[in-house]
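Hey, quick one: can you model this chain's 3D structure?
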Amino acid sequence: MDDDFMRSERLGFRTWRESDLPLARSLWGDPAVARLISRDGFTDAEVAARLGREIATQASDGIQYWPLFALADGAFVGCCGLRPRSGAPRVPELGVHIASARWRQGYALEAATRVIAHAFGPLGCEALFAGHHPANAASRALLARLGFVHTHDELYPPTGLLHPSYRLERGWGDGSR
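Sure thing. Here's the predicted structure for all 177 residues.
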């Protein structure tokens, strides 16, 4: 965990590497996780392509959905981070994908809180966008707890569904909102 660039109370964040394909497969290849972000799940080739896009986005934009590891034992927990949104370079999308074996342990809230602080601090983001599968009540509750405000429903092509979409303005956590 010496290569963490960021930490929260229980989690270390680092960047994805080509050698992380088994971790990526364990996350995005898990049907319980994939059903919330893709209509048909992900093949091994699609997981490898997703990993490649995360690595490329880090190289080009300095952001990605960073892999998360438990500080206590080094176990892979999932990923949480940012990705660029077309037409809104200062308003990236927040995303969090937690391994299903780690659900309901507070990792999504902890990771997202740390990423939001990083986005509005060192990265200087103006606002954040987030969306979720319409059947994902846990993500809906997480975004509400984080202070995101519903703005519209937006077609998310990987699921073919209208996803509730939200925005969080700069000033989060500083008492100004």
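One thing worth noting: Strands lie at 6-7, 11-13, 65-70, 76-85, 88-98, 127-131, 149-156, 161-169.
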